[in-house]
Write a structure and sequence with these properties.
single chain; 383 residues; alpha+beta; 5-stranded mixed beta sheet; 16 helices
């Protein structure tokens, strides 16, 4: 099996393929970017791979490092733990509790801009902007620069589609960050950049390039994935207005809308690992130093783990989805993502009444194979 890089962004619906693989070839191989990879599709197998950091190394993400630089997503063991600890506090509950009023203000400010128009594209005018505003605030970046580094971040994560464009974006981000890093070294503040430049790993501070690499990762990881979560969540509610009305009337359902969206349409469909020794998964022998792609999107729709998995179910309580991965590489920003999703959806429900798809616009759809979300969510509402 060979996948076209363009399909990583435009693939319409991979779930029938995933279901067939779970049924007939739960562990198979495919070629992507001139490298053979073993694909793991069943929930139990995916979870087992993600949990075993000794057997399945994060070195598989070294390809990402060619563009972002060396980051925590390709580190293992103690190195990963020490680097992660540098910024963990910035994404912890106490810090986020203090940030909640500011995040709420950012969400309502964006919704207020839309409220008088009666129509909007919630992707272009909300879901792309809101998480970027939040992560930029946490990093301590000037708001006037958001649109520019959003474009660089999008170019960076599209490295499989346009390697030259990703390299150019990586260099421009480096040029952008270096003066800010120098400033924070002289005048530290209460932001993530200051944590990185003043912190140490094993008693040694980070170099400027190591800080740049961390920031190249945090921007798209903190903004892009949450943007996709918000877009798919709004789509799931708008495609069934009875579902939307139920959530609007009972806001205690909002956390479960978030969990079910993460299960039903995970923003990041697969996570790569590399074997450190020969292994066997579901009866398939895999040599050492081979890439293993865990298909999170398939695991989250495994019919042996979730009943009627293709159905978006408000009453499902599937907190054991794998959308934030599992084990030592469990997503550092999971609490922030859930907080933004809750605040963002609440602001939209409060501010845009009688929300519905725009009947005069093209019907939206969720697409992608590596990253999934709708490209647009055109809506109308009562101004």
């Amino acid at each position: 099996m060979v996948f076209d890089p363009q399909g990583m962004f435009d693939f319409p619906d991979p779930y029938p393929l995933f279901a067939e693989l779970r049924r007939t070839n739960p562990v198979t191989s495919f070629q992507f970017l001139n490298r053979m990879s073993y694909v793991v599709t069943r929930y139990d197998d995916v979870r087992a791979v993600l949990q075993d950091g000794e057997t399945y190394s994060s070195r598989a993400n070294a390809e990402v490092g060619r563009y972002m630089g060396r980051t925590v997503i390709e580190m293992d063991g103690g190195e990963h733990g020490r680097m992660r600890a540098l910024v963990q506090g910035a994404f912890g509950g106490r810090t986020l509790e203090a940030l909640t009023p500011a995040i709420d203000g950012l969400a309502h400010e964006l919704v207020d801009r839309l409220a008088g128009d009666g129509r909007a594209d919630l992707v272009a005018q909300f879901t792309l902007l809101f998480p970027l505003d939040v992560i930029a605030r946490i990093l301590g970046l000037p708001r006037s620069d958001h649109a520019q580094f959003q474009r660089w971040s999008l170019d960076l994560i599209a490295f499989s589609k346009d390697p030259a464009g990703a390299r150019g974006a990586a260099e421009r981000l480096r040029e952008y960050f270096l003066p800010l890093i120098a400033l924070r070294r002289r005048e530290p503040r209460a932001d993530v950049i200051s944590r990185l430049v003043t912190g140490t790993v094993g008693g040694v501070g980070l170099t400027d390039d190591e800080v740049v690499s961390f920031l190249r990762l945090l921007l798209p990881a903190g903004a892009e994935t949450t943007s996709r979560l918000l877009g798919s969540m709004l789509y799931a509610l708008l495609v069934d207005r009875e579902r939307l009305g139920r959530v609007d009337a009972d806001r205690t359902l909002v956390p479960w809308v978030i969990e079910e969206t993460l299960r039903w349409e995970t923003p990041v469909v697969f996570v790569a690992r590399q074997t450190t020794r020969p292994v066997e998964i579901a009866g398939v022998a895999i040599p050492s130093d081979m890439m293993v792609s865990t298909i999170i999107g398939s695991a989250n729709r495994d019919e042996t783990h979730f009943d009627d998995p293709d159905r978006f179910d408000l009453d499902r309580r599937a907190e054991d989805h794998l959308s934030f991965a599992f084990g030592r590489h469990f997503c550092l920003g999971y609490q922030l993502a859930k907080l933004e999703a809750r605040i963002g959806l609440t602001a939209i429900l409060d501010g845009l009444r009688n929300l519905r798809f725009d009947p005069g616009a093209p019907v939206p759809a969720i697409t992608g194979l590596a990253f999934r979300s709708p490209r647009s969510v055109p809506v109308r509402f009562d101004a």
